[in-house]
């Protein structure tokens, strides 16, 4: 009796059995980020932030239409609806296979980076056997083998010839995960192995689903408070003052980044202070005509919103080491789920206390809220956070201030509103502040961001040295000239002396 033996790979490797399947896995959206260097990713982040500014200006127009034309001034319920719409990203677990793999695979089944310089000594140590204990499963024989065996029995009448009978059970052994991964990598070509190594490095640095969910649970309250305080500031305060005070977010970001830096580039510098000052000065010039002399409740809410946005962004950047570690759509999907489950008691409490009476929206109001939430929240917030992770928190908040001049420009183009010249002049330092901050935070020639740049401090120091020590510079230059003349004279005298002796 002969038993059939089969060796089966482990679960993670059984899903990828050949080079074709592996190449298909590699040809995902992650290939785009793998092919970009640090400078290109930074440029992509700037483009995303400018695109988000345009989307937010359109969203502000929809919010204004909802508050004024539709007369539905419910900032808390509007925030609850738009934030809950983030749950649409959780559908990715149904249609996106890498997310499902992250749920099904345990920590031991994740990618493991193998060091090629380390010698493999598994066969010379007392390590566990590479194959599991045998299991026996019924063997399915094809019909052709049965017919063949029957015909072979009738061809010969010699009863003395012994026939061989196979067992109806097959012995199956599972390969260990290490052996299965090594066998898979050994079958790949060089190009596929390089790409597999890149994918493995990204997967090793990727936050698991549990940590992404916990991160979303930690920051959802902070994000909702920042969003609601801004929506409430638009209702209770003057629009120009709210826009101006919202531009204080870069200042809070600069101070918080210096207090809890996530990388050396986040340290405070004189050049960054100048960039923030230019942005605030430009915003003051733009909003000067619409400022009110009082300091209403809306102004306080605007400052709270700016500080909460800065805290949320700096803290998240501190928790997430790089843009590759966090799956941004998954993060916001969990934020929407937690807000959907946790904010409705707050809406009920506001209704009971009389802070915001709940009214069921009409069909046009639902349509405006749905469109505003889909474009101005679900899409724009993901792009904004992705752009901030690709750049830095200071650049992200400075880009946020550009919505102020862009909103004035949109009113001038769409509604034919006439604004004074200082509105357009004030937009110049705001754009210059973003460009200046982008230059300060951009990676160097080697793609590294090891130390912050501070060219303004260096220029001031050079100018100060030239102003305070002009005589020393002149005397130093005069001494160098005399030294050169002395050396030349010594050379002439030596040559003439040698000719005279000859």
Report low-confidence residues grouped into runs of 5 or more.
1-29, 106-113, 120-125, 151-156
Widest sheet, order of strands: 1-3-2
The tally of domains stands at 2
Helix content, binned percent: 55-70%
Order of helices and strands: EHHHHHHHEHEHHHHHHHHHHHHHHH
Question: End-to-end distance, in Å?
Answer: 112 Å
Protein model, in words:
- Keywords: Membrane, Transmembrane, Transmembrane helix.
- Belongs to the SLC35F solute transporter family.
- By secondary structure, this protein is mainly α.
- It folds into two domains: 2-19 and 111-146 and 164-200, no CATH class; 39-109 and 208-457, no CATH class.
- Helices cover 68% and strands 4% of the residues.
- It has helices at residues 11-14, 19-26, 30-34, 38-69, 75-84, 92-95, 97-104, 143-155, 177-186, 190-205, 209-236, 239-246, 249-259, 270-287, 297-319, 328-342, 344-353, 363-390, 393-401, 403-414, 421-441, 455-468, 470-501, and strands at residues 2-8, 135-138, 166-174.
- The protein has a three-stranded mixed β-sheet with strand order 1-3-2, with no helix packed on it.
- The longest helix has 32 residues, at 38-69.
- The relative contact order is 0.15.
